[in-house]
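pinging the channel bc i need a second pair of eyes. not urgent but kinda urgent?? the chain im working w is below, pasted from the shared doc
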Amino acid sequence: MIIREMTFDDISEVAELERRYSQTPWDATGLLSWWMRDDTLFLVAGEESTEGADGAEAPALEEGAAPAGRPEAAEGTGADGGNGDEAFCESDMEYVPPVVYGYVGLVMVPYESDITNITVSGDCRRQGIATALFQELFRRCPEKGVSVIHLEVRESNAPARALYEKLGFAVDGRRKHYYTEPTEDAILMTRKLRDP
């Protein structure tokens, strides 16, 4: 697993995580609009996929070999009817989206910041992914001029609250009826990385 900055190619995968696992999901358009801002940082946990669209591992191609699904060249001719000297282009290969297990977003108004969202795939929970995302976020914040991180969490979300406390966040307030569907208070939490 790697933790890296979110790219444009990750947005559809992250939107699917949101749709499946968030009570108030962001769609791809919302994610894109936040991701494009200069005052945000989005990290993903995942790996680059080596699988094809059918789930089978994509074969490694030797130099000059035709990608899967493309007709083999007859001896003396290229697949396109040429003389066989044409090499295929990587763009001829089928696009394979990155694998994303989870993500975290941060909006920054240095020296402070707010977590926008954190979502981890249901079948990947309790494997340290959220912790790894936060640890990388904590590492990157000082270079962005951020020394304080705020977040809101549903009062009833005991597992998330326990994780945030373990990561050094402290309760510092409450917002009445902040969440909808269902209506619920938000518990406000803050972590100081260093004094501003």
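so Residues 50-86 have pLDDT under 50 and may be disordered. and Residues 129-140 form the longest helix (12 residues). — does that match what u expected or am i reading it wrong
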